[in-house]
Design brief:
mainly beta, 4-stranded antiparallel β-sheet, about 15% helix, about 45% strand
Length: about 210
Amino acid sequence: MTRDGRKIYFTDSSSKWQRKDYCLLIMEASDDGRLLEYDTVTKEVRVLMGGLRFPNGVQISPAEDFVLVAETTMARIRRYYVSGLMKGGEDMFVENMPGFPDNIRLSSSGGYWVAMSAIRTNPGFSMLDFLSEKPWIKRIIFKLLSPETVIKFVPKYSLVVELSDTGSYRRSFHDPNGMVATYISEAHEYNGHLYLGSFRSPFICRLDLKDV
């Protein structure tokens, strides 16, 4: 939301699947997601970007000149310009990320915290990367396995990265075995601490940034 409260930016991850069916959305990797803008004065909704694959977290820049949107299943973050000379344009903010980005939040350094809902093992086996190239295997999995079974194959490795205002990597925090935090969905900085939320765990973790 803009500081004056007029514009609200949000994503529509899929025109087919509801959010509770996120496993099916991830497996299908359809490109029917959108980034939208709601004007609280005119009550109008406008589509800013279409053709996105599981658009997820959204964050407006401190200067309110662009909006970042996480394209989860593509392991990248897109940028859409909402003001200035580039208004109406879009580009890639960061791609080929080490995990699948979920929510994006501002950091105190002027950059962005990005929570990774799952990692892309390198070197190693990444199920989502593997399945993205083999749609016939995905069809079999849809028929044989439940979403709860599928997610058991996703590593519990937790990862949060901090990006600069230009999209370069500043630092990262890891929990390789998911002993403290698993399936991270958001990292929110407040008063010297980083609060970590999860799309599966029923609790919030807190990291003291002065100790790292």
